[in-house]
Amino acid sequence: MAISLHILAFRPLVAAGNYRDDGAVTDVLEPAPTRPRLHRAWPVAGAAFVALLGAAAFRSVPSVLLDPLHDEFGWSHATIGAAVSINMLLYGLMAPFAAAMMDRFGIRRVVSIALLFVAAGSGLTVFMTEAWQLVLCWGLLVGLGVGSIAMPFVATITGRWFVARRGLVTGVLTAAGATGQLIFLPLVAALASAHGWRVPALVVAATALAVVPLVVFFIRDYPSDVGLRAYGAAPDSMEGVRVAPAPGAFRALRVLRTAVATPTFWLLAGGFAICGASTNGLVGTHFVTAAHDHGMPATTAASLLAVVGIFDVAGTIFSGWLTDRVDARLLLVAYYTLRGLSLMVLPALFAPNAEPSMLVFIVFYGLDWIATVPPTVALCREWFGTDAPIVFGWVFASHQIGAALAAAGAGVIRDLQGSYDLAWYVAGGLCAIAALMSAAIRRRSEPASAQPSMV
Asked: 12, 36, 178, 284 — which has fewest CB within 10 A?
């Protein structure tokens, strides 16, 4: 009896109805049901968020160090800018190859090695004495590192680990980019101002190294590696089950060769190129100068861009939530249309002070900044199956190309006309074209193959 009471005292019990032959009900005690454990997909997504947050911060740090490097070494801004340009170029072009390598060698290995590249590139800068060493460290090493932890990494994680909440998680991971810049840029600027540029360079290196154990411990390549299905997958589903390793990095080129034969690829890549042109290329690069042309202090204009980053986080997460519920094509049509209309009215909003109308534009543009990512990833997955991360890598490369062209083109317009007005109007028209391209994407009649192509 004592033993029975001792056991009952330490077991959670609930009452359950027990029917006797005469129909009466007696209460009996049964063990309480065990609480469901947290699915492994969430810690994986958390570690991916930290890695993406850091990658965005590492990529944006060189812009803060331009003046300190110029002051110490006397290098021209063009020379320093060359290193930054190589960094940005690799950030876009490395993405599809990194996605292919994740298929071949595994997510943990690729991301861990990428972080080591970032740490080496940032840490070695403290010993440099020549400009070519800056190009090698910040341009090549850091560029290869952050390019391997770009948006296709998001598509790979969500495609393998999530079925339910896939769009929402895509939005959260995409927002990590804006969050990283918001956290790191003020910190790096303060450290560079107080202690010189070498301290923030070492902080970046140390941070990259600190993230490596997190990636190794939490991230696994497939749910089946730990005996699970993807989060929200049906019991008989093959979602999250490891497949045979695909060919290596050059598979990215073979997947591209197949994708370019599909009109959907060109519609997605064209729309995303316009997305890059109308965000990073135009607003991100020229907004401060354009506002200063109208008498607004540069510090005020820069603060407005910071607000864009804040609302970008909320907008991207909300877009991911919508992507789980609304046709992705309709979302892209809405995003591009509204963005185009806002750019058309922007020239009339510039003033010496931040008027309420400009604040409305800033809030809206922040919400819409990269809200296009979750529906674009969803359409890549719908059309290209497990090749979607690589295809999205190429679509993302078009985003960077569009940004580069817009950054250069808007500068030419400013030099020739003394105003950015034409650039805003052209970008608004391009967004209308992107909306039409998104509307032209057809729904796929049957899901893409669950098996990766071996082309």
From this structure: 36
| Residue 367 lies inside a defined structural domain of this protein | yes
Q: Which residues lie closer than 8 Å to 261 by C-beta, 6 or more apart?
A: none
pLDDT of residue 348: 93
Range of the domain at 111: 37-227+244-249
Please indicate, yes or no, if residue 13 is contained in any of the structural domains.
no
* Under-70 pLDDT residues of the chain: 1-36, 60, 62-64, 66-67, 77-78, 81, 85, 178-179, 181-183, 185-186, 244-249, 445-455
Q: Which CATH number do you get for residue 307?
A: 1.20.1250.20
Name the residue type at position 119.
Answer: A
Per-residue pLDDT tens over the stretch 271-299: 999 999 998 888 887 888 888 889 888 77
Task: State the Cα–Cα distance between residues 314 and 296, nearest whole angstrom.
Answer: 27
73 and 198 share one domain: yes
112 and 182 both lie in a single domain: yes
Residue with tokens 């980053």: 309
In a domain, 23, yes or no: no
Query: Which of 64, 162, 41 is CA-nearest to residue 122?
Result: 64
CA distance 45 to 38: 12
pTM of the model: 0.74
Alpha helices (runs of H) in 251-387, residue ranges in sequence order: 251-259, 263-276, 283-293, 298-323, 328-345, 356-368, 373-384
Domain identity same for 167 and 257: no
